[in-house]
Amino acid sequence: MTVRVVIADDQHLVRTGLRMILAAEDDLDVVGEAADGAEAIEVCAREAPDVVLMDVRMPGVDGIDATRAITAEADAPRVLVLTTFDLDDVVYDALRAGASGFLLKDAPEERLTTAIRVVAEGGSLFAPSVTRRLIEEFSRHGERQPAPALDALTERETEVLRHVARGLSNAEIAAELFVSENTVKTHVARVLMKLGLRDRVQAVVLAYESGLVSSTRSSGPPS
Questions:
Q1: Range among 4-18, 67-81, 202-216 rated most confident
Q2: What's domain 3-126's architecture?
Q3: Boundaries of CATH 3.40.50.2300 in the chain?
Q4: How far apart are CA 17 and CA 29, in angstroms?
Q5: Chain-centre distance for alpha carbon 97
Q6: Could you give the CA distance from residue 142 to residue 77 in angstroms, rounded to a whole number?
Q7: Where in the chain is the domain with CATH 1.10.10.10?
Q8: Residue 170 contacts residue 183 (beta carbons within 8 Å)
Q9: What is residue 217's predicted lDDT score, i.e. its pLDDT?
Q10: Considering the entire predicted model, what is its pTM?
Q11: Residue 2, SS3?
Q12: What kind and span of H or E run contains 83?
């Protein structure tokens, strides 16, 4: 399957560099570019991409507002936020706006292409080691809100949700619970369906904001 990609960044050189990287991959096809959020919205409406590489800071309509508008549409593409700093405050807002993942701009080329494929397949929040810090910081920005829908989950589904919220992959969860990876995928799908969530990002946010999972980060430097 070919993944259709739109690149949104206000720097021409960045867009050119990203396009060259993706052009070398047989299964990745850049179908459009945008220099700001408003143009990104227009290009996505016209080209119907699978994934949008979204810069956050752009003139006019920024990446956050563009992400919110793009993900609000039916059959919306996945948005992979490109950011300079792994704990940049705007990333929290981007996740709230509907982004499915994030990646640092200085990430190796192979990590970028892998992240696009992961997000296109419904995965989220690439780079677990950074994800845990990001989500823990993100959880501090919002008030704890009860989530009655959690009562609809079975004990095993709740356990799986806790592991998802801690940044574990399906394979890692399977190892923790001594079950197959396909079983974990089924549990995750049921969690998303019961909670009315679009993807794992929303599940992670709900888990922290509801208090199901608490931030345990120490006061020392991040690992």
A1: 4-18
A2: 3-Layer(aba) Sandwich (3.40)
A3: 3-126
A4: 14
A5: 10
A6: 26
A7: 144-209
A8: no
A9: 41
A10: 0.71
A11: coil
A12: strand 78-83
